[in-house]
Amino acid sequence: MNAAIVTVGDELLVGDTENTNATWLCGRLADRGVPVRRVTVVPDEVAEIARVVNEYHAEYDAVIVTGGLGPTHDDVTMEAVAAAFGREVVENEEAAAWLEERGYSADDLAAETTHLPADCRPLPNDEGVAPGAVVESAYVLPGVPAEMRAMFERVAAEFDGVPSHAVVVAVDEPESTLIGRFAELRERFDVSVGSYPGESVRVKITASDAAEAERAAAWLRERADLVE
């Protein structure tokens, strides 16, 4: 299984808000062994959201869309996702009933709050009001981080992959001097290697087999100057 993440919001594109939702989702999906192939930020525009969701739905097993849920003028994500799948946005009785159980009557909410793509699976919002939805392989979640995280945990079991094991080796050498050892490391072991320079170089060795990752890390430690 693989996935793509689409984060919606003009505030992300102008730098007013940090895209912590994408970072968190990537981490949770990695924990479940699901590789994320794309992370895309799109504006609050129906056509642009629909185009990207439609494209990613065709390419990847699952698409997670966050942001733009609710009744205000810039909350257009549900309309856009519905358009991507050729559906109407309609009143969802299940979502309305769930909100009523929480003490919200129709008079308390804007009418659009419970309008979701036709024939979707609504997702309750345990930390807020605006419901999410699952439309085929697209999971539509809120943009408020606490709401998004709680709603994702409701569906986390539906994201199932092959977990990998990672070992990080901190090396006290310039990254350029490690190129040959990285090549040999990849030849000797069935691993992927990531190199992240900073005050030191963080070498992340990842493998589907934990023992293989550990053997590769041990090999590198014997052949590199390590951070003390």
Automatic annotation (TrEMBL):
Q: Which SUPFAM superfamilies match?
A: Molybdenum cofactor biosynthesis proteins
Residue ranges of domain MoaB/Mog in the record: 4-162
The cross-references to InterPro entries, in alphabetical order and at most eight, read:
CinA, MoaB/Mog-like_dom_sf, MoaB/Mog_dom
Any one Pfam family here would be MoCF_biosynth
Q: Which PANTHER family match?
A: NICOTINAMIDE-NUCLEOTIDE AMIDOHYDROLASE PNCC, NMN AMIDOHYDROLASE-LIKE PROTEIN YFAY
- Protein name in UniProt: Molybdenum cofactor synthesis domain-containing protein
The organism's lineage is:
Archaea, Methanobacteriati, Methanobacteriota, Stenosarchaea group, Halobacteria
